[in-house]
Amino acid sequence: MTDAAAYRNPQEPCFDIAHLAHVEVLTDKFEESLDFFTRVYGLTETARDDSSAYLRAFDDYEFATLKLTRSTTTGVGHIAYRTSSAAALERRVAAIEAAGFAGEWVEGDLSHGRAYRFKSPDDHDFEIYWETNPYQAPDDQRPALKNLAQRYHGRGCCPRRLDHLNLLVRSVENFRDFIVACLGSRVTEQILLDSGQLAGCWFTVNNKTYDIAVTVDHKQASNRFHHITYATDQREDILRAADIFLENGVHIETGPHKHAVQGTFFLYVWEPAGNRVELANAGARLILRPDWQPVTWTESERKKGQAWGLKTIESFHTHGTPEVE
Amino acid sequence: MTDAAAYRNPQEPCFDIAHLAHVEVLTDKFEESLDFFTRVYGLTETARDDSSAYLRAFDDYEFATLKLTRSTTTGVGHIAYRTSSAAALERRVAAIEAAGFAGEWVEGDLSHGRAYRFKSPDDHDFEIYWETNPYQAPDDQRPALKNLAQRYHGRGCCPRRLDHLNLLVRSVENFRDFIVACLGSRVTEQILLDSGQLAGCWFTVNNKTYDIAVTVDHKQASNRFHHITYATDQREDILRAADIFLENGVHIETGPHKHAVQGTFFLYVWEPAGNRVELANAGARLILRPDWQPVTWTESERKKGQAWGLKTIESFHTHGTPEVE
Amino acid sequence: MTDAAAYRNPQEPCFDIAHLAHVEVLTDKFEESLDFFTRVYGLTETARDDSSAYLRAFDDYEFATLKLTRSTTTGVGHIAYRTSSAAALERRVAAIEAAGFAGEWVEGDLSHGRAYRFKSPDDHDFEIYWETNPYQAPDDQRPALKNLAQRYHGRGCCPRRLDHLNLLVRSVENFRDFIVACLGSRVTEQILLDSGQLAGCWFTVNNKTYDIAVTVDHKQASNRFHHITYATDQREDILRAADIFLENGVHIETGPHKHAVQGTFFLYVWEPAGNRVELANAGARLILRPDWQPVTWTESERKKGQAWGLKTIESFHTHGTPEVE
Amino acid sequence: MTDAAAYRNPQEPCFDIAHLAHVEVLTDKFEESLDFFTRVYGLTETARDDSSAYLRAFDDYEFATLKLTRSTTTGVGHIAYRTSSAAALERRVAAIEAAGFAGEWVEGDLSHGRAYRFKSPDDHDFEIYWETNPYQAPDDQRPALKNLAQRYHGRGCCPRRLDHLNLLVRSVENFRDFIVACLGSRVTEQILLDSGQLAGCWFTVNNKTYDIAVTVDHKQASNRFHHITYATDQREDILRAADIFLENGVHIETGPHKHAVQGTFFLYVWEPAGNRVELANAGARLILRPDWQPVTWTESERKKGQAWGLKTIESFHTHGTPEVE
């Protein structure tokens, strides 16, 4: 394991992985969760099979970016990234296997072709794929402007696209080494405790400021989920969403406010089954610099709270799904 | 030349070029232009040499993204992109030379190291480089949040970062073939006339929806400039900027409104020397899809005007810098 | 008739009229208009009788602020203001009769008690009333915050409250003298032509910048309607509304942009029957000054177009409802 | 004293007082406070005399809305309202004297003519006046649009106008009876404790939702000040202001967030001398209803925190100026 303080991104960026593609979220209150995600949060259901509903934001090009799966528990099912090409998929599989995280090929589901599935050190299921089944808007969802994937329907919070997810892990360093090796992700920001250990880390495979973040699971359980996030076009969409959540009896955990880390304007709520869901806006912030090196926040810096001084809410450190004792 | 209607982006994206890095703009009213860009538009001057002022937006990581150069004319000096690595620079130089656009190595200026400079079919000067001189905020510009390049100073329109530029060209097809060959850019959107010729084309080298656009120069002159654009975090920043421009006697050409092409929220003004300058906001829109294919707008579709019906202003088709008879 | 240029508001403001209360709009496409106003524009239907649907914005305290009436034509039915008290109603009736605009008492409709109805010089029907039937939110419309009249439903454009209306008149001076005499309105802004005649005038009875405006009817017809307007909380709500209108095939006439007169941020569309409908945002602008005197815009000042230079669209001068030859 | 729960506004509104006109704030760090209010908060200094700087927001019509006075302490100097007419001033003086709050005539200062000054039950100095000295913009402050009082200068947070103030009082009921009797204010919202006592009350003399609020002083001291507030046009102005405060080292106490009471979007900071200063945006919310009755919040309702669940910060209940043991 590399010393956290000394960690440097490699000078040659890896471009094999194009973007975070979809996240499977488990719910033990399927109907309520589906109502939340479609009517209140503003995603569109594109298909349903025995176990899952396939959901998407209006400008996701993929068929589904959220696979909502009926379950006896909550949390995350699997996390999928799409590669930059067919060849890149092969390269990544080789890299994953070389790094000791070998998994297996699976068939894919309604939204994409065969995928290579493998496990993180905390038993989170990841998959990568190339062949996909892009969304084809039916007539009643055809946009007025042809450069949108689907019409701007304006229902609920109506975010534009999948943004990122956050996982709870036992060791941030272990997860970092895993995702850097497997996906070629780069570290954009990190929180370094006085103990020398990382409390959190933010990663990206492209110009987004992050597509996955991990924070330490204080319960030290495996395969736990912190939140999933969609991006809105404007911060005002998030202020408006707060009223929508309020009127629909959704538990608002914290926000709207601005994170110190990454500068993201955020709002966190819990969907009916208890999974944490965020809306976020990064403004025009992108990581364009190819030799970007991690921004490291110290423990004392993080004690200042969020960007404008809001104290980080306690449940942010304690609540994950599924709940554990 | 490829048939415009049939043009397809290659399936394997090229990642050698990281991002648009800076643009040199010429002015024959140096003091007035500098006052506009710093006090009104809200850039920061980081250095000055005999001929030029080096300017940057508050979250540009580079030393300068706009080099404002004292001149007897107006328009664009040169356009620079930074590569993804030192090796990528070598690969690109080889590709440029193989494509018949060979140029020469130049020394660089205050903001970066040696660069390879070459000409477009319309005599626009392009350069690519790897070695750079990132901005180091002096004490009075140090941000409260360490993940910003410079403090949010709030002066003038205060955009976040360089976004894109637009050039006038004699043949959009020729320019496209040039930039695809030289930079590995991808076409994200294009306007195809009934005649079978392109009227405009938008390109990107990364996840931004575009970093350069070209439109046909109705004067069929060479080396002409349409506009340079910085990105704001929110659309509200642009509405506010409109009042700032109004109060400062800046000529507002058109906007604020939303482009149909690319969906960008825009505002165009002319700086004192006549160069067109834009503020733009793309919301959360990104091109994440690795196999993105061009969105083609027909002549009749473009006749509908901008996204919400605003007719494209006549001067948008006639005014470029330098002015020609 | 007072000389327009010399017109002064009386030093002692009149407070008998509390606010614009509701507008009756006629439609010859009742179902389509109702669908527009409820699903797209975002009003709520509170009742229906044989001829009309009663509609309201989410924070209107009244039962209805828009009475949409099935008709063989389009335009305005009647315009209602609520008085400040029962005694104020009596005072106003006396003033109206003294000024030569005597009308008659009518019974009121579902939304309020008896009203005094009288005609403007252009045959527009006005009414004033005191006794009202405030909105009582049913269980499914009860707001989460008890200081709202109805829950923030977030459907369609979802404006907060009725703002103002605009009528076409043959003589602005005549209308001004009428409304000043009858309602005690004050002139906040006006457009004075070089000919010495008024082209438009904006009036208020309270701290709003205007609740009614009139402009010259170039057709010199009677009882014509220019538009009705609801207020949004933020300008961003109007930018969002533009996308909603676009996706729903609503004709966007002009905007979003900012008026020079009154500084209102605006968006104009035509509902299915052709009546012009606006969304507007005045920011924090109010007329608090008790001795406010009219701001007079000259013909040459108005030729500069709207605040940020947008030329006033031609149809704004020609389209009114009902259409006349 | 009227029973708080049963308090009803009179049916006949009083219109003698037009609006809150200015507030005098005391500072024992005059230079730092002045720098804060002009450079960071974005007011304009219009004059200075031996003891005070006269400050205004860009669209205040008055010469000054904040009189910043050099002092050995902090807190509020006096609070001024302008009447609706000369006659209304006489009526109010008679009412004040009849209610047992007789004061005396004072000469006025640079911003207005003679005023009647009187004390609240908690020794706060109030004054009312009619004759005023409206702001005349000098050439360099003349607005591009003639309906603005001053140009939109865009410096600092740049709020539009004075909005309201908040005082600490020993008895909310006593203050209510005072202000209702003296100014004819109406109660728009109030917080009623289980004990039957009021914890806070919001008042208005016009269509604004409130121009003064009072909350219980837990120290039971006299003449204490909670905060002064200016209004911004948009919520985005407040989000932007948060970054300006952050970069200028201003203590952000709480926000941006939305109050449950009155629904105001808020941000509270402490100016260098410790006085609390707010920026607020009410959207399009107004009190137009002439027979508006108080909205009463119970103790348990207020325990839910602010509109979107933010807990009210502890210092909001403890910090006032001047500080007392």
What keywords describe this structure?
alpha/beta; eight-stranded mixed β-sheet; homotetramer; 2,3-Dihydroxybiphenyl 1,2-Dioxygenase, domain 1; 325 residues; nine-stranded mixed β-sheet; globular
Q: In words, what does this structure look like?
A:
- 4 copies of one chain form a homotetramer.
- The first copy, chain A, folds into 2 domains: 17-141, 2,3-Dihydroxybiphenyl 1,2-Dioxygenase, domain 1; 161-318, 2,3-Dihydroxybiphenyl 1,2-Dioxygenase, domain 1 (Roll).
- The first copy, chain A, is an alpha/beta fold and 325 residues long.
- In chain A, 18% of the residues lie in helices and 33% in strands.
- The mean pLDDT of chain A is 97.
- The first copy, chain A, has 6 helices and 17 strands.
- Chains in contact: A-B, A-C, A-D, B-C, B-D, C-D.
- At the B-D interface, helix 4 of B face helix 4 of D.
The total of helices of chain A stands at: 6
The span between the termini of chain A is: 29 Å
> Which percent band covers the strand fraction of chain A?
25-35%
Stated plainly, the CATH topology of the largest domain in chain A is called 2,3-Dihydroxybiphenyl 1,2-Dioxygenase, domain 1
Radius of gyration of chain A using CA atoms only: 19 Å
Q: Enumerate the spans of chain A where pLDDT stays under 50 for 5 or more consecutive residues.
A: none
Give the overall average pLDDT of chain A: 97
Largest interface here, residues on each chain? A-B, 51 and 51 residues
Number of domains of chain A: 2
